[in-house]
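Final report, Chapter 2: Outcomes

The project's central promise was a pipeline that accepts a single protein chain and returns its three-dimensional structure in a standardized token representation, suitable for archiving and comparison. That pipeline is now operational. To close this chapter, we reproduce one record exactly as it appears in the project archive, with the input sequence first and the structure output second.
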Amino acid sequence: MKKIALFITILVFSTSQVKASGPIRWGIIGGMNISKPTHTSYSEGYGFHLGGKIEYKLFNNESGFYISPAVLLSLKGGKPVPVSYPGDKDVRTNEHNYYLDIPVYFGYKHSFNRKVALFGGVGPYMGVGLFGKYKRKADGVANSVNPFGNNGYLNRFDAGMGSQIGLEFVKRIQFTIGYELGLKNISKKYHYKNRNFMVSCGYMF
């Protein structure tokens, strides 16, 4: 939790230095993740994302193309199928992986009027695994490991493509849904990639 608080403090301080002048705006965003690695032994896991973004209009019009990079703290992972050993009872597993994600969206925004606009974009993202926890509980005894540690089973770096579509109200409030398609193998032992569905709410300054 201390690492999360430090990240949020740095993010808020950094984005507050960006001036919303001309074609540049900045904002804060947060929401829910529903993630599932492509390996068949995983089911969906729930997490969150939180961070800031910048929106740069390529043309200084109400409607038009834009570029929007972001910096997000993102909790991904899933629920691995429990591996049981002889004598085990009530086996449960969970995996929580915290990433620093940097997506860059190239998009288009269409303003219907001064209060409502529709926008959408696609682009690449890069991710760095910060820390995580794989937890296995059997017979009331829990054991956990850091998947990104020296003896961990996950590669620290991730990369892929993302897409999003959303609505903006009164040029401030944004509601967005998006999807991240991981293209890099994140496992050291097997072969699987991140998949993440996102529901976000943001406020632009």
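Archive annotation: Residues 14-21 have pLDDT under 50 and may be disordered.
This record, like all others produced under the grant, will remain available to the consortium after the project formally closes.
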